[in-house]
Amino acid sequence: MPARRLPLYQAVDREIDAFQQATGLGCPTGCGHCCETQTPYVTVADMAAIADAAVARGDGEALYDRAVAALAAGAPCAIYQPGRLPGGCTAYELRPMLCRLFGFAAVRDKHGQARLALCRIHARDLPEASARAVAFVDGGGAVPAFADWQGETDALDPDGSREQLPINEALARALEKALLRARYSG
Known about the structure:
The structure is a single chain. It is built from nine helices and four strands, in the order ααβαααββαααβα. By secondary structure, it is mainly α. The strands form two sheets. Strands 1-4 form a two-stranded antiparallel sheet. A hairpin with a 5-residue loop joins strand 2 (about 105-110) and strand 3. The longest helix is centred in the N-terminal third of the chain and has 19 residues, at about 5-25. It is globular and about 55 Å long.
């Protein structure tokens, strides 16, 4: 993982942990609903750490093939594996910022006020914790905001591209770059 990205991931993870501790909100064990039903849009740089790790393990080409097949099939995420615990992500420690924040972050309204972007599974399965989390944010409690953290990660994009792509397309492009670098580096 690029050395500049790791501190950001650690910082947002601490903010999310603090938010979860304050509100009691957390994903149900084994839940991967968002990974199974949504197609997140991320940058190629968001997927670079996953691509580099796959190439280093020797399975970059296989992951590339999965990403391309998933993209063609309209599947939500090539790195998601249903039934895998705790939540199905095969690259959990390296997941993009958007995946880290989902369910535990806010959007800002036109007045700059944070409004929790509540996950519908949280709302359905964890109504008390969801209500506490909404009240916490509405009361001015600290919550990570998507725009704040996405801006931080965009600044690290070495190509200067902030183009948001479907996750499988961004992964395939990141793998193309990582595989090319590996081939030319010997």
